[in-house]
Amino acid sequence: MMGWRAALAAVAVLAGCSQPQSGAPETAPEAAVAAPSVAVSEAWAAATPNAAQVAAGYATLTNNGAAEDRLVSAASPRAARVEIHEMAMEGGMMNMRAVPDGVALAPGAPVSLAPGGLHIMFMDITAPFVDGETVPVTLTFTNAPPVTIDFPVRPRTVGAH
Amino acid sequence: MNRWMLSRRLLWATVAVAGLGLAALAWRANTVEARTEPAAAPAQNYEMFGQGLAEATLVDQTGAQVRWGDLNGPPRALFFGFTRCPEICPTTLADLDSALDQIGPDAARLRIDFVTIDPARDTPETLSAYLGSFAGRDIRGYTGSEAQIAQIANAYRAAYRREELDGGDYTMNHTTMVYLIDGEGRVVDLLSYGAPPDRVVAQLSALLSRQS
């Protein structure tokens, strides 16, 4: 599916443009100690239609620790529940499922939560997500300390500039 | 019983895959032909979609009962989705909205029909509030009983399935095609999810040209 790939690439480019410094150090001297830590970059959440009860957020996670880590849960004051979901196109059907065991984060390998794949699913949101605002999200990992970060809200439309 | 359900799903999946293949072919055809001869339909045959629904009924977002056959008239973009959909449905609606923006005033003739595949939660009120986001668009939502929704969806070979989540919640898996329908109710093209914006604009423009 060329179109889908192109759309994904466009999203990746957009995300990359907006945050040129992703803060994912390769092997800086201090990183050699490699205490458990996960860097969160390119975080954003999609603006929702009015009266929406769910929303989706995306981010790139880079495990800067020496050992394998895992994104195990997420929470936000803007949603009654936050889950990690994965979607995949299978036989023309878009399937979505919860990822109860979380997302594996190998040391040094960025993992993208991006449209068409993994996403942070906000369920029963307190109010629609509006373009320009930010939504605080706390991500919890097996080893690394939790990270709380503001997800900027952006329109979902790709391309159409 | 189960085997029958399974084979029906398989059939839908097969049809959906075939449909996507046809859509891909249609894209190619459109990029070449759209400007020169929009009225010349691609060789693909979409007659199988939406047959036998003239007397089928649903409830629109105002709570009024509607006959499917009475929806014919304007060119339409038909989509099956649900409002608790995190990504596919809002993206599809946003993409349609932005493509219609690019087309300009002529796009006002097109109606977007959104049929929920989650009628238990998508009441007329829910649909009305949700679709109200797209101000200035002729966009209508439809709900009904499970059986009414299934009748419509089956006729368009749209597949959907409930996926259980923790805590008794659920989400819906579903096919993602948008059916482009002419004034007489015939499906004449399909939009595939994630298609490049210029392609969507070309396909919608071709649909609008057929009408004039």
According to CATH, the fold-level topology of chain B is: Glutaredoxin
- Main sheet overview of chain A: 10 strands, mixed
**Could you give me the name of the CATH homologous superfamily of chain A?**
PCu(A)C copper chaperone
Rg of chain B: 17 Å
Shape of chain A: globular
Q: Quickly give the structural class of chain A.
A: mainly beta
- Poorly predicted runs of chain B are 28-41
| Class per helix and strand makeup of chain B | alpha+beta
Number of helices of chain A: 1
CATH class annotation of chain B: Alpha Beta
| Beta-strand residue fraction of chain B | 15-25%
Task: Give the strand tally of chain A.
Answer: 10
Radius of gyration of chain A using CA atoms only: 16 Å
**Poorly predicted runs of chain A:** 7-25
Oligomerization category of the chains in this entry? heterodimer
What shape does the CA trace of chain B take?
globular
Mind explaining what this structure looks like?
The complex is a heterodimer of chains A (161) and B (212). Chain A contains 1 helix and 10 strands, in the order H-E-E-E-E-E-E-E-E-E-E. Chain A is mostly beta strands and 161 residues long. Chain A has a single domain, classed as Immunoglobulin-like (Sandwich). In chain A, strands 1, 2, 3, 4, 5, 6, 7, 8, 9 and 10 form a 10-stranded mixed sheet that branches. Chain A is globular, with a radius of gyration of 16 Å. Chain A starts with a helix and ends in a 7-residue tail after the last strand. Chain B has one domain (2-211): Glutaredoxin, CATH 3.40.30.10. In chain B, 38% of the residues lie in helices and 21% in strands. Chain B has helices spanning 2-33, 88-103, 124-131, 146-155, 197-211, and strands at 57-60, 65-67, 76-81, 111-116, 138-143, 160-164, 170-175, 178-181, 187-191. In chain B, helix 2 crosses helix 5 (197-211). The longest helix of chain B has 32 residues, at 2-33. The model of chain B is unreliable at 28-41 (pLDDT under 50). Strand 5 (93-98) of chain A pairs antiparallel with strand 7 of chain B, so a sheet runs across the interface.
